[in-house]
Amino acid sequence: MILTELTVDPAELEHGTGWAVKSEGACRGEVCVSLPETARAPDGTVDTHVLAEHLGMPLIDDEEHNLWALGPATVPTGRALATAAAPELELPDLRTGGLFKLSSLRGQKVMLLAWASW
Questions:
Q1: Who's near 19: CB < 8 A, 6+ residues apart?
Q2: Where would you tag: which of 2, 23, 46, 76 has the fewest CB atoms within 10 A of its CB?
Q3: What is the pLDDT of residues 52-110, one digit of tens each?
Q4: Long-range contacts of the stretch 22-31 (C-beta < 8 A, 24+)
């Protein structure tokens, strides 16, 4: 997304990047990333420095032409998920002796906690 200012209208941001700024943060599809209050300017525009930092988006400037380029979110940084859909996961159910499928909880909010001793 090419910008002429370091703040952007939320509708223009959504059209250019797919990220909608809502009360819960920046959302694309079912994925939302929380943003600090400083992400919104008093006039309702979005501060691209704050947005880029929280979504892992590159923000590159061309001082000579007074332009900025806001790149796509870099999901591999671990700052944002590409999707909130989890892959199928089957684990032994210690109570029944059978298999427990993560998909049996579809439609519910689920928190997965992984732990390793190393």
A1: 13, 26, 27, 28, 51, 55, 73
A2: 23
A3: 988 888 899 988 888 999 887 654 445 555 666 777 888 898 889 999 998 898 888 88
A4: 26/51, 26/54, 26/55, 28/73, 29/83, 29/84, 30/83, 30/84, 30/85, 31/80, 31/81, 31/82, 31/83, 31/84
Q: Are 2 and 69 in contact (CB under 8 A)?
A: yes
Structural domain boundaries in the chain: 2-77
pLDDT in tens, 31-46: 888 899 889 988 999 9
Give the global pTM: 0.60
Return the H-helix or E-strand segment holding 11.
Answer: helix 10-17
Long-range Cβ contact pairs of 62-68 (< 8 A, separation 24 or more): 66/4, 67/2, 67/3, 67/4, 68/2, 68/3, 68/4, 68/6
